[in-house]
Amino acid sequence: MHREIVITEDGSNTLYIPELNEHYHSIHGAIQESTHIFIKAGIEYYGQNNIRILEAGFGTGLNAFLALLEARESQRKVMFHTFEKYPLTPQEIGCMNYTDYFDPADTLLFQQLHDAPWGEDVPITSYFTIHKHKADFEEVNFHEYFDIVFFDAFAPDVQPRLWSESMLTKFYTALKPEGILTTYCVKGTVKQALRKVGFNLKRLPGPPGKREMLRAVK
Question: Of 35, 38, 161, 197, whose CB is crowded by the most CB atoms within 10 A?
Answer without folding.
Answer: 38
